[in-house]
Amino acid sequence: MHQHTSRRRVIATVAGVTAAMGVPAAASAGTPASGSQASGNQASGNRASHRRATKLARSMSLEEKVGQLFVVEIYGQAADTEHAKNRELYGVGTPAEIIAKYRPGGVIYFDARRGPDNVREPRQIARLSNGLQRAALHPRGGEARIPLLVSIDQEGGSVVYRMLEPATQLPGNMALAASRSTHDVRRSAEIIGTELDAVGINQNYAPCADVNINPANPVIGVRSFGSDTKLCSELVSTAVRGYHRGDVASAAKHFPGHGDTDVDSHTGLPEIKHTREELDRIDLPPFRAAIKNGVDTIMTAHIVVPALDATKAPATMSHPIVTGLLREELGFEGVIATDALDMGGATGEFPPDVAPVRAFQAGVDQLVLAPKLDTAFAAVLAAVRSGKISEDRLNASVVRILEHKLRRGIFTSPYVNEERAVRTVGNRRHLADARAITERTVTLIRNESGALPLADGAHKVLVTGWGPAPVAALAKAVAERRGQKSTALETGAVPTAAKIEAATAAAREHDVTLVLTNAAAAAKEDGAAQAKLVEALRATGTKVVAVAVRNPYDIRRFPDIPAYLTTFSYGAPSMAAVARTVYGDVNPSGKLPVAIPNLEDPNRALYPYGHGLRY
């Protein structure tokens, strides 16, 4: 039933009358049709949404229009609760007061790791969403009643995700690509979308459409579906459809492609040196596929691409890239959003009064996380009043944003049911599907002399290596097996000589050692130290199994390890899947979505794309 909600909302949008707009219902709206009639109804619905959005935009003040461009973060777990950080950033105390002050087009949720602490548990999130929508739809003055886009970064995996348990934890993109299953990709996106929708989040900034061809990429990596453009294109379009089945808007990122860089745009400004031919062959096809499959939003990247803009303006600030390529050449008609404007790739050369204006002039519609919001808001407003930005240009973006909200049914269904949120998030069916999907992502790269699966009988197992949480989760999963005993001994990202000595001493007292690695192939101290730990464990003469819990490249540092698995994720569900795999309950079926290059000769593959062993 739930997978059809999106279509019901579109029909309701065409037929309904919103108090905010006062526009009569379209006489032709009705029940969903099939074939050419369905296509005609959709086109009619799009035209109706455009007319309503245009009429509403005409009734809005200049300040209200500028407000619609911004996507802001708010601090706290309730709309009416004071938070000191809100007052520091915005001069008002509560999230509801932020909405009243700026009339933003959207908000974005974060968990406590960044600071806003918006997403604790389903009922609280649903209540926060309802409170914010209430603030947007019941303005104090005579402003237009426009619901919010409530957004989040919930990509899946263990790198970029905000909703923790009890939300269902799904594998990330590269893990899903290892399964080669479009069904699993679609179902994962549908589950994420369904749970976001249940708590009032209507926009997910996912999927990543980047093609990760650089093993040293510090910011994309496992967030990508891999290094093969054809596979990435297929799975990006599948994920878009899956999010829509879950009734949440999708966003392909990071345009025009962030997959071939060794610089993190959170802290610097990467340069992509691909030729235009390489961009057309490698980077752009997944975005074309997303557009073809109805992606709602495309997010720009803070990267320099000289082949597309000789001025070396970051893509977010580049008219040739945003308007010339994305809007005109690729024909994208949806909403274009910036990546966070508080990232180093944007703030390095563009101060708070410049970045939002430059991005808007380039052709974006939504300005996400603009720092110093008072300054940013005033700068855009001043640019319109001075003619630096034409009012026609402003109206075009505002209408596009309003159309998006109409098509997604946010005007007609802005609120969610808190009880339903509790029942939906992390329900049994979602958890069961997630477990099965995760098991299909585990990839066995090396298994010499039948090191795996572990033979029957009791084992004393040492779980050591990177990460307190994954080490503990894997040790727990092993200990829960009948007859097995486990010891957890975490050694950190950069194991010291003392920790390596402690781990090797412990290994001699156990039958099997499972050692977790993360970025052991990185050309820095972290990788070298983790490699020393693995080699020291091997030197004990006991059975050692290495498990890479993020990027699959770690085996480059210890190619002679007898057994090596990669999970592409360090979340608890992946650790549980590892335990079931090493004991043979699960026969590993994953295939590498990237090649693993040789450490000494990166042009030679240690393990090729598509490699993966079974028992």
Give structural notes.
This protein has about 625 residues and is an alpha/beta fold. It has helices spanning about 5-15, 35-60, 60-70, 85-90, 95-100, 120-135, 175-180, 180-200, 230-245, 275-285, 285-290, 320-330, 345, 355-360, 375-385, 390-405, 420-425, 430-440, 470-480, 495-510, 525-540, 570-580; strands spanning about 70-75, 105-110, 150, 205, 250-255, 295-300, 335, 365-370, 445, 460-465, 485-490, 510-515, 545-550, 565, 595, 605. The strands form four sheets. The protein has a six-stranded mixed β-sheet with strand order 9-14-13-12-10-11, with helices on both faces. A five-stranded parallel β-sheet has the order 4-3-2-1-8. Helix 1 (about 5-15) packs across helix 2 and helix 6 runs antiparallel to helix 17 (about 420-425). The longest helix has 24 residues, at about 35-60. The radius of gyration is 25 Å and the shape is globular. Residues about 1-40 have low confidence and may be disordered.
Query: Which structural class fits the helix and strand makeup?
Result: alpha/beta
**What summary fits the major beta sheet?**
6 strands, mixed
How much of the residues is beta strand, in percent? 5-15%
What sort of overall outline do the alpha carbons produce when their principal axes are compared? globular
Radius of gyration: 25 Å
Q: What is the helix tally?
A: 22
Distance between the termini: 39 Å
Mean pLDDT: 92
Low-confidence stretches: 1-39
